[in-house]
Amino acid sequence: MPEAADEADVRLLAAVEPTRSLLDNVHLEHVLRAASLTGRSPADVASRLTALGYRLPDEVEYPEVRGAG
Question: Rounded CA gap, 59 and 40, in Å?
Fold first, then answer.
């Protein structure tokens, strides 16, 4: 895990769902919502959430493309 979250991480975590904790699994809908709200690709969101200690399902492949926004 990173030593500190940066400003982009704070925005990402706020976009995932304010009530989620590290003990909760993050599902596809949370990744897609956060990607849409932050302008990041779902793959980037999933990668960063994993680095921040969140658990994501292994069987999901997240697209590298960013949504139109």
Answer: 21
pTM for the model: 0.77
Continuous H helices in the chain: 7-16, 28-38, 42-51
Contact predicate 28/57, CB 8 Å: yes
23 CB-side CA count, 13 A: 1
- CA dihedral sign of residues 59, 27, 43, 1: negative
Report d(CA 14, CA 38) in Å as an integer. Answer: 10
Task: Give the length of the chain.
Answer: 69
Over residues 15-66, the pLDDT tens digits come to: 887 666 666 788 889 999 999 999 999 999 999 999 988 888 888 888 887 7
